[in-house]
Amino acid sequence: MQQTLEVDLGERSYPIHIGPDLLEQSDLLSKHLRSSQVMVVTNVNVGPLYLDTVTRKLREFKLETLVLPDGEQTKNLETVEIIFDALMQHRFSRNSTLVALGGGVIGDIVGFAAACFQRGIHFIQIPTTLLAQVDSSVGGKTGVNHPRGKNMIGAFYQPDCVIIDTSVLRTLENRELSAGLAEVVKYGLIRDPEFFEWLEANIELLIQRNHDALAFAIKRSCANKARVVSEDERESGLRAILNLGHTFGHAIETGIGYGRYLHGEAVAIGICQAAHLSHRLGWLTRDDVDRIIDLLQRAKLPVNPPLEMTAERFLEIMSVDKKNVDGKIRLILLRGIGKAALPCTVDRVQLETTLNEYGRN
Amino acid sequence: MQQTLEVDLGERSYPIHIGPDLLEQSDLLSKHLRSSQVMVVTNVNVGPLYLDTVTRKLREFKLETLVLPDGEQTKNLETVEIIFDALMQHRFSRNSTLVALGGGVIGDIVGFAAACFQRGIHFIQIPTTLLAQVDSSVGGKTGVNHPRGKNMIGAFYQPDCVIIDTSVLRTLENRELSAGLAEVVKYGLIRDPEFFEWLEANIELLIQRNHDALAFAIKRSCANKARVVSEDERESGLRAILNLGHTFGHAIETGIGYGRYLHGEAVAIGICQAAHLSHRLGWLTRDDVDRIIDLLQRAKLPVNPPLEMTAERFLEIMSVDKKNVDGKIRLILLRGIGKAALPCTVDRVQLETTLNEYGRN
Prior knowledge:
The structure is a homodimer. Chain A is an alpha/beta fold. The first copy, chain A, has helices at residues 47-56, 77-89, 104-116, 130-136, 174-191, 193-207, 211-231, 246-256, 263-280, 286-298, 311-318, 348-357; strands spanning 3-7, 14-19, 37-43, 62-68, 96-102, 122-127, 141-146, 149-156, 161-165, 330-331, 334-336, 339-340, 344-345.
């Protein structure tokens, strides 16, 4: 059955619809469209699977489609320009809509294009990976990478609505499913200990794609994120806790080159590093660190940093993270399972020790 | 003497400081800086004149400077990327400030870069042309051109403050001064008939750069724009009247190629075309049309469209304007001097007649 979650952001509030076979529903997308001009943007992997299903429901609109290449390495300004060119070529007006059909990369690129085209047009997200469903579809962060740093160029821009069709996870690769679970586990860790325990009991069901388990995990994850974002839309405080594991993870993605690790895989490793450092600081028990690593491994995720990422390389890249203040590295760490601390500057020696020791033998 | 005008936009409100020799004041800029990292961006014309004066006051900050090429043809995404590259190279954090020192082009480009870098950093405007002082420094419209259309890519982004030093107009070229007066005249036309009459009486003083006259005209123009923007920040209604003459003017700039006409010159021609069309519709007397053309000519502005801009070329380009709805051209016209009408769809034949007849003999 379909459920709806409301993201409460004042006049920028929007609904998230979650349920099986939503793309097959003839009017769910069209009833949210507030313009006659609509462009659906997808990629070469998702397009063949779902583009036809989506566009078949939009016959009464002035419809265009755009199929982009796939992968984090396409998340750059050049790809955004391809969208601008298509919008200009088809004479899209300020009153038009971009629909992002795909994973987090498509959502981030298309959302940023929607934010900038004519200073902002309508935007609807149809996330097709677990990671995009539980993470990038909530919160309005859009953007692209700079060669020197991930997500360095972007905008806060909220969609008109998000449509999460849980049935599309049937076609998701195993590796992509696990990558999404890294972010799911993160929500338990930062603010929902009960959910973390549920995950410990049910992680195998999720890996086996049990439909009810996935629907529950997606809704609980979105609800957690929506609550955090509602309280701090532009990340002036609380919202930063959503970045648990991300500063380490981004460094891995930047250092190894976008593409070899999926975002969720890099985050899984980063969560373990953050847990290890939290333990070094006396904030987290050894037992809790082991529970975290164990759960991520059961989710078929990597938990050790790649050998070529030396401590020096980590520090070099982490020093340009967006959360830093006046050049000092700031991290989200854990004070327990279900209890993230706000970003804090960490003793350099402690950080280096974790970078040198954790996962290195 | 220095005056301050407050642009009222709730939590995004900011002050505009207007007066002579403001750049020489040692603490006006620094007291508005909310970060230690500051990058001043200017161009090859303005830099040699004022960059040293501005940076001399910022010795206690982590300061970088960037000098861009000049001209509307540089107002594109490539130039924005030059700014991103410099910010990344110098490891600018989310808590840093971009200062735009220059005309409207510099303000638009740098403002857009500030809006997008790490999803938004601090931004201060120091406009050095009359046009930028009375127009682009108020209202938060930032952005760049697309090869197929002007200002098609951008963001609404408000500065922390605007510093208008009227003394810098001493070094402005005559042609640039006149271009600024086109926008000044516009404010009289759209909502301030008393100001229009003042301009009719004092236009020669402005051309002669009488300091008090310029200071009055700048403040009155900014106050008019600030009032309109306060009521409609994101141009859902009233704000569109600021575009009087701009749909025609943008078509000239796009059609002839950015650079041959200054923006204000193209707007002056566009205002005359809009006045002519308003008269055709019976909204404006012949006498008022003549008053408008006469005032713009006394301001040393062109008033006739270039020959190579045929009616067909105008229509082709105007059909992709941001104000259009569902492909229909919408224009701001006048119902009298000091009285702009909200955007309206105009009878195609009437529009074509104005495009074919006005200024063609």
